[in-house]
Amino acid sequence: MAEFTLSQVLEATQGTSAHTNNIKFLDVSTDTRTIESGFLFVALKGDTFDGHDF
């Protein structure tokens, strides 16, 4: 996956941030077991688990 910035994430999700928008991410993951340095974690809520708990 190509590198992307927080600014791009905020634009795509119509979100806001209290932090600087020039933070760069190398990849995205919804599974805390696969997180590596530079990854963006996206918490998803499912029938069994809620990613916000992690």
How would you sum up this structure, described in words?
By secondary structure, the chain is α+β, with helices and mostly antiparallel strands. It has a domain at 1-25. 15% of the residues lie in helices and 19% in strands. The protein is built from one helix and four strands. It has one helix spanning 6-13, and strands at 4-5, 24-25, 27-29, 39-41. A two-stranded antiparallel sheet has the order 1-2. The radius of gyration is 12 Å and the shape is globular. It starts with a strand and ends in a 13-residue tail after the last strand. The model has no long low-confidence stretch (mean pLDDT 87).
Alpha-carbon Rg, integer: 12 Å
Please write the string of helix (H) and strand (E) elements. Answer: EHEEE
Number of strands: 4
Give the N-terminus to C-terminus distance in angstroms: 24 Å
Q: Helical segment tally?
A: 1
Any key phrases for this structure?
two-stranded antiparallel ribbon, UDP-N-acetylmuramoyl-tripeptide-D-alanyl-D-alanine ligase, alpha+beta, 54 residues, 1 helix, MurE/MurF_N, 4 strands
SSE blueprint:
Blueprint: E1 4-5, H1 6-13, E2 24-25, E3 27-29, E4 39-41
Parallel strand pairs: 3-4
Antiparallel strand pairs: 1-2
Short account of what is shown:
With 54 residues, the chain is an alpha+beta fold. It has one helix at residues 6-13, and strands at residues 4-5, 24-25, 27-29, 39-41. It has a domain at 1-25.
